[in-house]
Amino acid sequence: MILSYATDDIDRFSAANVLPESIYSLVYLAIVSSLITFLAFQWLIRVQPPAIVSTYAYVNPMIATLLGWSLADEHIGFAQIGALLIILTGVLFVNVPRYWGRSST
Q1: Which of 17, 47, 103, 104 could form a disulfide linkage to 97, CB 3.0–4.6 angstroms apart?
Q2: Nearest to residue 94, comparing CAs of 60, 61, 49?
Q3: Whole-angstrom distance, CA of residue 105 vs CA of residue 97
């Protein structure tokens, strides 16, 4: 908002141009991110090592991208696919010690 005021972009904003889908999406994200995800994080931090639990920060954008592609017909390019593969590889590396029977902490 501050940047919008500083660059005079706020003058071009019109509430009439905001689609209902945008409002629904914002409300959904606010509820899921701040309530359900936080509760799941609190439970996981009690039962899993922090290194494992912290991978949610990398997996959430991946899930959102795939849901946008499958439900909203959003385009996914090679850059997004590459980023998703990097994310999955990182999550795998964090979890490999656990799969091999060693502690990750």
Answers
A1: 104
A2: 49
A3: 9
